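Hypothesis: this fold can be encoded by more than one sequence.
Test: take the structure tokens below, design a sequence, compare later.
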């Protein structure tokens, strides 16, 4: 896209902004909040935590301001009409404006939002509910860093879209990593819901003397979830709820407990786990799902055409296997599809005969057709 811009000096300046944007996204993505978590939820941010987080907050502000400075240096705002005129020009871009002007207007529009959010970050760190609560502090820092990455992505995408029909995955820094993370969270959360719900049913059916053993088993299952990449990517407040439940469960696993007491703790946690699946509603994941559904549809049509040719069942089986492999990233969207995908992981779909291919293809097509197509946002 940059190579297609005739004004080479303009393209060079825009390249510097995009390079700075990519570097900022990398720096804003490298913070691991797990290291700052505690095993309890009632710890206030002590001095040591503030000493650790102060550089993180400082660096977050510096990373965003560094990008803003690069934009100001290479695309200074026309202050003739003041800030209000800049925003108005960005929002109400005239039909006759040139592409470079449109790109600059997009840069300035997002730039204004980023500057406002830097101010909001400073104000947020002084709120009493943040100062007095470790998890609220971690949540606020995480929330602002996520917002900054999103806005920087919009800055690149909106300005690049002026010159070419581009997809976010090709131009937005960190887009593919964010999609991968969302897919992982959805899949792992779906498995967590399934495991915890199954454990709850076993607890309901268990004899009273087996209650502590089930608490210990659930504790092990939850610890396995805590080691997954999906757990590391969760929002701080979701982690807070899990840590709180883990603490209660640990006490029940260590000492004899009654069945009603364990059920009283586990039942709400099942609902909490289901709440993790709200990641399905994220716009970035809905766009991903539309594209996956379309890609699977194409593969299945090709497989069906192959079946119409004599001795083409190996080709059809291969295409079916490719479609199912592609659909694995939809795991977590719907329970029946999840069952099919789990079975498919263990089945040699690529070596199925013609009759088996037709049966599995029709079953797979029916499952995909039952999924609501995510709306275009």
């Amino acid at each position: 896209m940059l190579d297609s811009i005739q004004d080479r000096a303009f393209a060079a300046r825009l390249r510097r902004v995009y390079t700075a944007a990519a570097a900022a996204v990398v720096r804003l993505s490298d913070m691991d909040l797990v290291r700052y978590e505690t095993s309890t939820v009632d710890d206030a941010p002590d001095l040591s935590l503030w000493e650790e987080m102060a550089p993180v907050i400082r660096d977050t502000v510096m990373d965003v301001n560094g990008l803003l400075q690069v934009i100001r240096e290479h695309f200074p705002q026309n202050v003739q009409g003041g800030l209000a005129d800049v925003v108005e020009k960005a929002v109400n871009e005239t039909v006759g404006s040139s592409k470079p002007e449109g790109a600059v207007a997009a840069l300035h529009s997002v730039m204004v939002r980023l500057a406002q959010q830097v101010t909001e970050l400073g104000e947020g760190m002084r709120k009493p509910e943040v100062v007095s609560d470790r998890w609220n502090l971690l949540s606020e820092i995480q929330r602002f860093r996520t917002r900054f990455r999103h806005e920087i992505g919009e800055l690149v995408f909106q300005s690049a879209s002026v010159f070419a029909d581009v997809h976010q995955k090709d131009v937005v820094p960190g887009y593919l990593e964010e999609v991968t993370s969302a897919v992982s969270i959805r899949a792992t959360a779906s498995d967590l819901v399934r495991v915890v719900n199954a454990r709850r049913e076993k607890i309901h059916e268990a004899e009273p003397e087996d209650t502590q053993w089930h608490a210990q088993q659930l504790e092990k299952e939850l610890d396995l979830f805590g080691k997954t990449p999906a757990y590391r990517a969760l929002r701080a407040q979701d982690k807070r709820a899990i840590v709180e439940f883990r603490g209660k469960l640990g006490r029940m696993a260590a000492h004899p407990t009654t069945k009603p007491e364990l059920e009283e703790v586990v039942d709400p946690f099942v609902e909490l786990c289901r709440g993790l699946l709200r990641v399905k509603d994220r716009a970035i994941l809905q766009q991903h799902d539309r594209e996956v559904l379309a890609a699977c549809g194409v593969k299945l049509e090709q497989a069906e055409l192959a079946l119409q040719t004599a001795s083409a069942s190996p080709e059809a089986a291969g295409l079916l296997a490719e479609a199912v492999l592609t659909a694995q990233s939809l795991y977590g969207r719907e329970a029946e599809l999840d069952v099919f995908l789990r079975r498919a992981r263990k089945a040699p779909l690529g070596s199925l005969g013609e009759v088996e291919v037709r049966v599995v293809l029709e079953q797979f097509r029916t499952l995909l057709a039952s999924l609501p197509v995510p709306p275009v946002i």
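Residues 79-84, 90-96 have pLDDT under 50 and may be disordered. The CA atoms of residues 36 and 49 lie 7 Å apart.
Hypothesis status: open.
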